[in-house]
Amino acid sequence: MNAVEIRGLSHRYGTGPTALTVLHDLDLVIPAGEIVLLTGPSGSGKTTLLTLIGALRAVQAGSCRVLGTELAKADERTRVALRRRIGFIFQHHNLLGFLTARENVAMALELDPDLDEKERLARAEAMLHAVGLADKVDAYPAMLSGGQRQRVAIARALVHEPGLILADEPTAALDSKTGHETMALLQKLAKERGRTVFIVTHDPRIHDIADRIVAMEDGQLVQPATH
Amino acid sequence: MNELAPLTRVYPVLATAPPQQSVRPPRTAGFRLPFRLAWRQLRHEPARLAAALSGVVFATLLIFMQIGFKNALFDSAVLVQNSLRADLFLMHRTTEALWRSASFPRARLAQALALPEVERVTPLYVANLPWKNPETGLNRTLLLFGVDPTARLLGFHGLDDAAWDAITRPDTILFDERGKPEFGPIRSLLAQGSFFGELNRKRVEVVGTFGLGATFSSESNAIASETTFWRIASGRNPAQVDVGAIMLKPGADVAAAKRALQALLPDDVIVFSRPELAQFERNYWAKVAPIGFIFGLGVAIGLVVGCVIVYQILFSDISRHLGEYATLKAMGYTNGYLARVVMSAALVLAVLGFIPGLVLSLGLYEIASAKIFIPLHMTIPRALFVFALIFAMCVVSGLIAIRKLRDADPADMFR
Ligand SMILES: Nc1ncnc2c1ncn2[C@@H]1O[C@H](COP(=O)(O)OP(=O)(O)OP(=O)(O)O)[C@@H](O)[C@H]1O
Ligand SMILES: [Mg+2]
C-alpha cells in the first residue's frame, strides 16, 4: 500500500505567454510508513509538489493519489476531507496565539465528531507528553521557545493519527541543534506509530532521519542519492 | 487511549486509512466549537474586545434614545385623542393635526343629528394661548380646550363632576397639573383655594386641576367652558368649531354610521372613528412633520455607525489572523466552519454590547422622564426589537467581513 502515488504530474502557474511550468511529468511513490526527504535548489518546485500532495492546490495534469484518494479533478469537499487525514508541519509553527499548547493540539481533533472534549484534551495532553512538553500544556505559544513551538506543531500534526505527515522546511526557523533534535523526535514518533512522512528541506543536517532522499531539479526528480 | 500507546504498532504497519473513508464528505460540527473558538479569540485581547463593545454600546444607546423619543412623541401626540369619549369625529378636510386644526361650520354638527343612529353631538374648540406664570410673570403658550362642561367629552385624569361643575361659572378654567413647571406652582397655589391668573391677557380664575401632561404639541393644557373659551380666545367665531364629537345610540354600528355620515355631510369635513383619529394624528407626526423622519434617520445612523465599527473589528481580526485561518483550512477546517467562527464573534459582540447598552438606556430614560418631562418607557417588545436590530447589524457586519476569509489560502502557508 502506498501513501502517495504520483504519475505524470505537471503543474504550471499562470496562463498564456507568462505561464510558468514548475513540475514536468513527475512520477513519485511513497510507500506507507516511509520517511522521505525532498531536496533541491530554490525554485525547483518542491513546495508546489508538497501543496499538491497536501490537497491544498488543484491538480492540473497527471494523477496524484494520496491515501487512496485521487486528487486529479477532485472537488473542494474531497480535498478538505483528505486534508483532515494529513498532518501539516509548517516552516513557522503557525500555532494559534490565543490558544494554549494543549488547545492548539486539540484543534486537530475538533473536526472528528466522534470525540468528546475530554477525549480530545486527554489525547492532546498525551501527545504533548510524547514530544517532551508535559510541563507546557497550559502555556501560550508566546511563552514558548522556537523549538518548543515546533514541537507543539509536531504534536498537532500527529495527534489525529494522520496517514501522512507533510512538512516544508520545518527546521528553517530553528538553530541547527534544535532543528536536528526536533526532526529526530519527529522520526522517532513517526516510526513508533508507523506514520508516513514527507519533508521538504534544504537542511543537510537532517538527512540522517530519512529512509530515502529524493532530489528535484527544474520540476523533475533527479536520480536520488541513496542514503 | 490505545491509539496513542507507542510501539504497539510495528513499522511498517499501514497507517493509511481505508480508501472508502476518503469519499466521506467532511462532516460539519455544530455551532458550539466555532463559537468557543471565537470567544477564546475575543477574550485573548480584552482591550480590543472593549473597543468593539463600546461601538455596539453606542449604537444600542443611540437607537434606544431615538425610538424612545419617537414613541414618546407618538404616545403623547394621541393622549388627547385617546381620552375623547365619543364614537365618531368630524374635522375639516385641511386639518393636519389637532393643535393646528382648521375649523369648520358648526352647522355640520346639526346636520349630523339627522342620522337616526346619532344620539347627540358636541363641539370641541382648541386654541394655543399665552399663560402668564403667576410667580415669574413670564408668558408661555398652552393649549386651551373649549368644551360644554355637561357633555363630559374629555376623559382626562382627575376630571370629576365637581371639576366640570366648577367651570360652568364664567371666566373659570381647569389647569393641567402635569404640565411643565414653567407655568407656575399651580397645585400649591390651588391648595389655598382658587386663584386668578392671566390667559391671553384676560383675567381668569383657576378653579381646579386635571392631569394630561406636556405633549410634543403643547407644554401644558387648560379647559374652559365654550363661553369662557370664546371670551379668552377673542377673535374666534363661535360658529366655527375645530372638532365635532358625535355620540351614537347604544348598539349602533360605528362603521356603518361613519359611512352614512360621510355621505350625508358636505365634503369640507371628514368623519373619523376614534382609532382613525389617533392614527391620523400619528401619521401627522410620522409623515407630515419631519419629526418621525428625523428619528428614523437617527436609528439608521446608529445602525450604520455600529455596522462600521463591528465590521472594522471583525475585518481586522480576520486580517491579523489570516495565517491562523489559513492554517486551520490546511488542517481541514471548511470555509463554512470559519464563517461560523466569525458569525459567533459577531453574536458575542451583539449580546455583550447590547446588555450594557440596555442598562445605560434605562438610566437615560429615567433622566429624560425626570428632567424634560417626556416619559420614556422601556418595554420588553421594544428591548427585543432593538436587540434584533443590533443583532442584525452584527450579522450584516459579520457577513461582509467573512468575504475576507477567502484571502486565507492554505497553500500560501507553504512558500
Ligand atoms: N503562487 C505562485 N504563483 C506563481 N508562481 C509561483 C507560485 N508559487 C511558486 N511559484 C513559482 O514556481 C516556482 C517553484 O516554486 P516552489 O515554491 O515550488 O519552489 P521551491 O522548490 O519550494 O523553492 P524554495 O526552496 O525556495 O522554497 C518558482 O519559480 C516560483 O517563483
Ligand atoms: Mg519552498
Could you characterize the architecture of this molecule?
The complex is a heterodimer of chains A (227) and B (415). In chain A, 54% of the residues are buried. In chain A, the strands form two sheets. Chain A has a six-stranded mixed β-sheet with strand order 6-7-8-3-9-10. Chain A is of the alpha/beta class and 227 residues long. In chain A, strand 1 and strand 2 (20-31) form a beta hairpin. Chain A contains six helices and ten strands. Chain A has a domain at 1-85 and 202-227: P-loop containing nucleotide triphosphate hydrolases (Rossmann fold), CATH 3.40.50.300. In chain A, helix 4 crosses helix 5 (146-158) and helix 5 (146-158) runs parallel beside helix 6. Chain B starts with 31 loop residues before the first helix and ends in a 13-residue tail after the last helix. In chain B, strand 6 (195-199) and strand 7 (202-210) form a beta hairpin. Chain B has 13 helices and eleven strands. Chain B folds into two domains: 32-74 and 292-413, no CATH class; 94-266, no CATH class. Chain B is of the alpha+beta class and 415 residues long. Chains A and B meet through helix 1, helix 2, helix 4 and helix 6 of A and helix 1 and helix 11 of B. The structure holds adenosine-5'-triphosphate (ATP) and magnesium ion. Magnesium ion binds at residues 46-47, 168 of chain A.
